UniProtKB/TrEMBL annotation:
<keyword id="KW-0046">Antibiotic resistance</keyword>
<dbReference type="InterPro" id="IPR000412">
    <property type="entry name" value="ABC_2_transport"/>
</dbReference>
<keyword id="KW-0813">Transport</keyword>
<dbReference type="GO" id="GO:0043190">
    <property type="term" value="C:ATP-binding cassette (ABC) transporter complex"/>
</dbReference>
<protein>
    <recommendedName>
        <fullName>Transport permease protein</fullName>
    </recommendedName>
</protein>
<dbReference type="GO" id="GO:0140359">
    <property type="term" value="F:ABC-type transporter activity"/>
</dbReference>
<feature type="transmembrane region" description="Helical">
    <location>
        <begin position="249"/>
        <end position="269"/>
    </location>
</feature>
<dbReference type="GO" id="GO:0046677">
    <property type="term" value="P:response to antibiotic"/>
</dbReference>
<keyword id="KW-0812">Transmembrane</keyword>
<keyword id="KW-1003">Cell membrane</keyword>
<dbReference type="InterPro" id="IPR051784">
    <property type="entry name" value="Nod_factor_ABC_transporter"/>
</dbReference>
<keyword id="KW-0472">Membrane</keyword>
<feature type="transmembrane region" description="Helical">
    <location>
        <begin position="132"/>
        <end position="150"/>
    </location>
</feature>
<dbReference type="Pfam" id="PF01061">
    <property type="entry name" value="ABC2_membrane"/>
</dbReference>
<feature type="transmembrane region" description="Helical">
    <location>
        <begin position="81"/>
        <end position="102"/>
    </location>
</feature>
<feature type="transmembrane region" description="Helical">
    <location>
        <begin position="186"/>
        <end position="206"/>
    </location>
</feature>
<feature type="domain" description="ABC transmembrane type-2">
    <location>
        <begin position="41"/>
        <end position="275"/>
    </location>
</feature>
Length: 277
């Protein structure tokens, strides 16, 4: 007796296709969350690494750092570290995507009768959930070292929203690099990209202490715009400035992430669809 397997019919309406994509995407998200639950050591190490940087810069180097307008250096530092944590997420996204692609997991997903967007959607949801957890850990760390927000809960929530928007933009950068560069061993190349971008910003030092050309590069760094905007929203020292980019930090904190999303989201989708070519 022969048995025939019939592939599920692709939904015809836009609403049905959306429900199909969301359901399949959530299944992939649960798969990624299950992997983290089975290897909690990797998650814990990723959460604690930024905390160690805070302790190192806040207590070892903090005494020699200049804060524009005066104020506590750790209050200046923490918004920068929140944004840096969003940047560090590129490495985790890249490693997970590249590992699945190298092991053939991604090809297996592509052969299944699931929504074509489910894999990247599930990856993005899982990483954003991990980002929220990491940001909560960093905020707890900030509170422990003396950082506070001073402008009310609404403005603090807006600052958190800008940070998550930045992470969402970097997420698509990580997905694209993971699909493009090959196996997870290429993470060194990603670190060579990520770390200079992170340190060449206003995260740890005021740009006014830098040479003119270096200060200009640091101020136009997308990270610096989010750092300056969140410092202003939190009421921490270091917000504002005399240059155009410093005066429009809140606008650029929206423009830079949206620009990155507009570039790397379609590139990631296109690359995913062309993996077998």
């Amino acid at each position: 007796m022969s048995m025939t397997v019939t592939a599920p019919e692709i939904p015809r309406t836009a609403a049905a296709r959306l429900r199909w994509a969301l359901a399949d995407g959530w299944t992939v998200t649960l798969r990624d969350l299950t992997h983290w639950a089975r290897k909690p050591g990797q998650v814990v190490a990723g959460l604690l690494f930024p905390v160690m940087i805070v302790l190192m810069f806040g207590y070892v180097f903090g005494g020699g750092m200049a804060v524009p307008g005066g104020g506590d250096y750790r209050e200046y530092l923490m918004p920068g570290m929140y944004a840096m944590t969003m940047l560090f997420g590129i490495e985790a996204t890249f490693t997970a995507v590249a590992r699945d692609a190298a092991k053939g997991v991604t090809d297996r997903f592509r052969s299944l009768p699931i929504a074509s967007s489910a894999v990247v959607l599930g990856r993005s949801v899982a990483d954003m959930l991990n980002t929220v957890l990491g940001l909560l850990v960093m905020i707890a760390c900030g509170l422990a070292v003396g950082w506070r927000w001073h402008e009310g809960a609404v403005r603090a929530a807006l600052a958190v929203g800008l940070l998550l928007l930045l992470r969402f933009a970097f997420l698509w950068v990580g997905i694209y690099l993971g699909l493009t560069l090959g196996g997870p061993e290429a993470v060194m190349a990603v670190q060579i990209l990520v770390w200079p971008i992170g340190f060449l910003s206003s995260a740890f030092a005021w740009t006014g202490t830098m040479p003119g050309w270096l200060a200009a590069v640091a101020e136009w760094n997308p990270l610096s715009a989010t750092m300056a905007a969140t410092r202003d929203l939190f009421g921490n020292p270091g917000a504002g400035g005399t240059t155009w980019i410093a005066e429009h930090a809140a606008v650029m904190a929206l423009v830079w992430p949206l620009l990155l999303i507009a570039v790397f989201l379609p590139l990631s989708v296109r690359r995913y669809r062309r993996l077998d070519r």
